[in-house]
Amino acid sequence: MYQKDNQKALYELSKAYLNENSEQRQKPEQEQLSDLQELIIYHEWRYYIQNDPVISDFEYDTLFKQLEAIEAAHPDWITPDSPTQRVSADLTSDFPSVEHLIPMLSLGNSYNAEDLKEFDQQIKRLLNMEEDVDIEYAVEPKFDGGSIALVYENDRLVRGATRGNGTVGDEITNNAKAIFSIPLKAAFSKEGITKVEVRGEVLIRKDRFDAMNKERSQANEMVFANARNAATGGLRMKDP
From the candidates 4, 65, 124, 142, which is the catalytic residue? Predict the structure, then answer.
């Protein structure tokens, strides 16, 4: 999809946009918008399809927020094919596509306290609460793995799928069945449930990830960039 020279140019352009003092950040905003859309699509391809990112999650989010800021200032510039108009997809042509029972959305993220304060204010506005009211939040770690949706029908696992674009994902049932921690049967019928979709993250523990990469390195095989990419790559193996 991308030639080597083209990828190098996109990488260098990405680094320029990540530098607040670069000439690229002084270009007309419409040109910046076009650049950022192209860069984000490229990095999504590296991350979700190739499982081999060349920038950090923080750097990707920084580029994405630059694009969001320009589109927020110029909503008439937003196009249906902009990366901001969809959930980042992990769809490939190697597996059949299936539709989720209900949309499988993604979480927002933040790297500063101001975003959290704004989130708190949004909640209060939605609930018609006074600004000085304290809200208690439950917080838990977010495991960074590959999102998976499992459909059980009559207590049996009948389908596994990736998140894909949030509405449609890759059907990976055989791969899901190869994960021993995923039950092939579950007694949902005891609760009167005949069909249910269970969602979660497929993870690789860091110690196992390090051991796997060590083995791959010793065998002169390409090592994985991080545990998340190893997990998502495993979900789409043709020979699980």
Answer: 142
